[in-house]
Write a structure and sequence with these properties.
By secondary structure, the chain is an alpha/beta fold. It contains eleven helices and ten strands. α7 runs parallel beside α9.
Length: 333
C-alpha cells in the first residue's frame, strides 16, 4: 500500500490527523512546452545554468522518489513509463501518477506561441490503453462560455468512460478561467467552486475523482469547497514559482482552511535544492515549523551545502501572492 492510499482512506473516513496532509510533486511540466520546462541545471554553487536534458530531469525525479518525502509523484505519461521501466517505484511508498490530458491553456511554455491567451480547449495526448500507472490527473478549465464549457464537460465524460474501462483512477484539476474578463475578479473563486460542485452533482461513486486540485482563491472559498461534502478531498495547486514564503504559506493556510494536499510544480522544480525544499515543506505540513521558520531553515540548509540562494533571505520571507496576504480573520499574516 502506498502512503497516499493510507492517508486518503483516513481523510475520507473523517480521521484526518497530524502528518496526513499530502504533498505531490507535479513533474508533468514537459507537456506544457518542451525544452524550457525541465528547469535549470545548477552548478556546484547552486547557480542556474541552461535547461536540464530529459535524462537529467528523470534523474531529479528519481532522487525525489528515493527521498520518500512526497506522497505522490506526477509526471507525463511518457516519463512515467520510463521511470517505471527503470524500477524507480519498485518497493516505494510514493504513489505514481501521470497527466492524462492537457487543456490548451497549459501550453504556455511553447516558445513563440500564445496558446495560453486563447480560450482553453480540451486535448488528451495520453492513451489510457497504455497507462503507466493506476492514477492519473485530468484537468478542465471553465471560461464562462457555454459552448467551450460544454465541450470541456463532454470531453471529461468521454475520459471517465475510458478510465473506468482501463481500470485507471483519476483526480480532477480545475483551473481558474484563462480568458481575461471571463468572470469578474471578485467572483472567480465563487464561479470555480460552483462549477466544480455542479459537475460532481452528476457523478455516481464509480465516476467521481479521487480528489480535487484547485487554485487557492483565498480562505473563504477553500473552506466553502472543503466543508461542502464530507469525504470530498480537496487539494491546492502550487501555481507559478514565487518566494519560498509563498510556498510554505500555501501549505499552512490551505491546510488550516480545509485542504488536505498540495501539488507543487514550478515551486519545487525551480528550487535551488529540490529535496531540501521538500523536506521543509514536510515540516510545515506536519506542523513542525511555521512558514517563516521554514524559510530561514531552508536558507540555512543552502548555506550548509554551499549553495547560493536565488533570493536574499529578507526578500524570500515576503508574501507576494495576493490570496495569501490575509487569513480567515482578514488579519495580515
Amino acid at each position: 500500500m502506498t502512503r497516499y492510499a493510507d492517508k486518503i482512506a483516513r481523510i475520507r473516513a473523517g480521521s484526518y490527523r497530524k502528518g496526513d496532509y499530502m504533498i505531490a510533486d507535479a513533474k508533468d511540466s514537459d507537456v506544457t512546452g518542451g525544452i524550457m520546462t525541465t528547469g535549470a541545471r545548477r552548478d556546484s554553487d547552486g547557480r542556474p545554468l541552461g535547461p536540464r536534458s530529459r535524462p537529467e530531469f528523470l534523474q531529479q525525479i528519481e532522487q525525489i522518489v528515493r527521498q520518500d518525502a512526497v506522497d505522490i509523484m506526477l509526471t507525463s505519461a511518457g516519463n512515467m513509463a520510463a521511470l517505471r521501466e527503470a524500477g524507480v517505484f519498485d518497493g516505494s511508498a510514493v504513489q505514481p501518477a501521470f497527466r492524462a490530458n492537457e487543456t490548451t491553456c497549459v501550453w504556455g511554455n511553447v516558445r513563440g506561441a500564445d496558446y495560453a491567451a486563447r480560450p482553453s480547449r480540451p486535448y488528451r495526448g495520453a492513451d489510457l490503453d497504455f497507462a503507466p500507472a493506476d492514477l492519473c490527473l485530468y484537468s478542465i478549465t471553465f471560461n464562462n462560455d457555454t459552448e467551450a464549457d460544454a465541450r470541456a464537460l463532454e470531453a471529461y465524460a468521454a475520459f471517465r468512460r475510458e478510465a473506468r474501462a482501463a481500470g485507471v483512477r483519476h483526480f480532477l484539476e480545475v483551473f481558474n478561467p484563462n480568458v481575461p474578463g471571463a468572470v469578474a475578479p471578485e467572483q472567480t473563486g465563487a464561479f470555480v467552486t460552483d462549477c466544480i460542485l455542479r459537475v460532481l452533482a452528476s457523478l455516481t461513486p464509480p465516476e467521481r475523482p479521487e480528489f480535487l486540485k484547485v487554485v487557492y482563491n483565498g480562505p473563504d472559498h477553500m473552506a466553502a469547497l472543503a466543508t461542502h461534502e464530507p469525504g470530498m478531498v480537496v487539494g491546492v495547486l502550487g501555481g507559478a514559482g514565487a518566494t519560498h514564503r509563498d510556498t510554505f504559506e500555501l501549505i499552512a493556510q490551505s491546510e488550516r482552511h480545509g485542504a488536505r494536499l498540495a501539488l507543487f510544480g514550478r515551486k519545487i522544480n525551480q528550487a535551488e535544492d529540490q529535496c531540501a525544499l521538500i523536506a521543509w515543506m514536510r515540516r510545515v505540513a506536519d506542523g513542525e515549523a511555521s512558514p517563516s521558520e521554514a524559510v530561514r531553515g531552508y536558507h540555512a540548509e543552502l548555506a550548509r551545502r554551499g549553495l547560493q540562494p536565488d533570493r536574499a533571505l529578507d526578500d524570500d520571507l515576503k508574501i507576494t501572492a495576493e490570496s495569501l496576504h490575509f487569513d480567515a480573520d482578514c488579519a495580515p499574516v
